Amino acid sequence: MDVELPELPFPLRTYGPDGNWSYEDGVLTGWAGARQDRFVPPTGEALDPAADAPRLLGAPEGDFQLIARVTVGFAASFDAGVLYVHVGERAWAKLCLEYSPDVPTVCTVVTRGHSDDANSFTVEGSSVWLRISRTGRAFAFHASRDGEHWTFVRLFTLADEGPASAALVGFMAQSPVGEGCVVTFDHLAYRDSWPQGLRDGS
After folding, report:
1. pLDDT value, residue 162
2. For residue 159, what is the DSSP state?
């Protein structure tokens, strides 16, 4: 199913399980079902081929920034709302507001064959602003408590499994160990540029 959001210059398509995606008055809403997640354990455990989570993704052109305030209806550990970038089946990354495991936390996962997992900073309440940016082959993750001052979280590339220009980006909801959760994305914004500075708060 294709979804058009007025804030974005490219259409979005659903991937994975049904996320019951809806959009109204500037608010995008999605649902993760019980034990839905995308993670390839670095400990060598076998990947369950059925492991997946609802995603709504599109293909921007050139340099960009994708911004949203993410709010999560936390019900269990690791419930999360996610900005997501996908280059290949084992080359993708997540910027999450996650209940990790007992306090809302900005977390990141970068998967190159197997996933890593890193926590950034904790958040009061259930909302935070997240931003994915791209220039050339590089991606950057930022987060903000107020939507004005941005904290640098991560800089990386996924291009080994495909051109960065072919990346899909968008939104995901997850509930790895819980019975499901609802995620909303608002204050959506798109810019066709790379941030002026990665570490200066801009």
Report:
1. 55
2. G
Residue 169 parent element (H or E):
strand 168-174
Number of helices (H), then strands (E), in the chain: 0, 16
Distance CA 191, CA 9 (A): 10
Helix, strand and coil percent figures for the chain, each rounded to 5:
5, 55, 45
List C-alpha distances in Å: 81 to 15, 78, 113, 180, 195. 15, 10, 23, 12, 23
pLDDT of residue 161: 53
Q: Which domains does the chain have, with CATH numbers?
A: 2-191 (2.60.120.200)
Taking CA atoms, 198 is separated from 127, 167, 187, 202, in Å, by: 22, 21, 21, 7
Kindly give, in sequence order, each residue whose CB lies less than 8 Å from that of residue 105, ignoring residues fewer than 6 positions away.
Answer: 97, 98, 99, 119, 120, 121, 122, 123
pLDDT less than 50: residues of the chain = none
| CA separation for the pair 196, 135 (Å, rounded) | 11
85, two tokens: 């970038």
